[in-house]
Amino acid sequence: MKVVAAYLLTILGGNASLSAKDLKTVFASAILVIVGSITR
């Protein structure tokens, strides 16, 4: 759900046409959140 939310926020933030780099950034941040929650 966090990945979907990040994707939607990117679109709502004014970036209507996402590039591969934008998606990699969104997914990388989601992975960091997941790893951070596992290590706690």
UniProtKB/TrEMBL annotation:
Domain of life: Eukaryota
Sorted UniProt keywords: Ribonucleoprotein, Ribosomal protein
Record has Ribonucleoprotein as a keyword: yes
Keyword Ribosomal protein in record: yes
GO cellular component terms attached to this protein's record: ribonucleoprotein complex; ribosome
Family that this chain belongs to: Belongs to the eukaryotic ribosomal protein P1/P2 family.
Assembly behavior: P1 and P2 exist as dimers at the large ribosomal subunit.
Protein name in UniProt: Uncharacterized protein
Species this protein is from: Rosa chinensis (China rose)
Lineage: Eukaryota, Viridiplantae, Streptophyta, Embryophyta, Tracheophyta
